[in-house]
Amino acid sequence: MDLGISGKRAVVCASSRGLGLGCARALAGEGVNLVMNARGAEALEAAAEAVRRDFGVEVTAVAADITTAEGRARVLEAGRGAEILVNNAGGPPPGVWTDWQREDFIAALDANMLAPIAMIQGLVPAMMARGWGRVVNITSMSVKAPIAVLGLSNTARTGLTGFVAGTARQVAPEGVIINNLLPGIHDTARAEALDAAAAQAEGISPAQARARREATIPARRYGSIEEFGAACAFLCSVHAGFIVGQNLLLDGGQVNATL
After folding, report:
1. Is 204 helix (H, G, I), strand (E, B) or coil?
2. What is the pLDDT of residues 154-181, one digit of tens each?
3. Residues 16, 57: Cα–Cα separation, whole Å
4. From start to end of 2-129, where are the E strands?
């Protein structure tokens, strides 16, 4: 299927590895030129160079912390005129509700709610003026089914979901489509860290922690960044114009819900 976005320009946040990289590579495979962002300059440039080599698209790498005002300003300047925005940022640390103080919640909100909102506010007005745009926010399956040890993530990402629910319906008449992708466990460094934390807490090996988690997923495996990226690319395509303000689960069936 031709997604109809060849030659367009996308900003993909936190895209040096993991789900962000999967999205960047999928978009590049469709001929989309990229602004790739991550905090670590070395890993980011390596990922950007691989995308250039593999797909022949233009890639601007911006090493910056998207959760800070200065970092966002640099990414927004590099991405001026972009038709596509993929919001992404690493999740807050796991724990239990008694662990967290006000500053922990503020940090989570800054990274996983306020930063993507600021990116939307920075890029969507120009998309509306042109009459076409796509925004995909990478959130979490925890907005559908909260994960006890990820309470900070549950809180911040659900706040972003509420913002998107209203905003998506306000900008859709101008041709700008906003949706959320809700990953379950994928084969990323984040999953490795969660498995390592579970292993340490329970006195088992990381491999045992992973096997136990895989057994709770109907697909009986972790997702891949390639299949996640393909879903993101479709939501950014010309074929997704009637999908407005939705929350698409990519979780292998882990969230057990009828709707």
Report:
1. coil
2. 999 999 999 999 999 999 999 999 999 9
3. 16
4. 9-12, 33-38, 59-63, 84-87
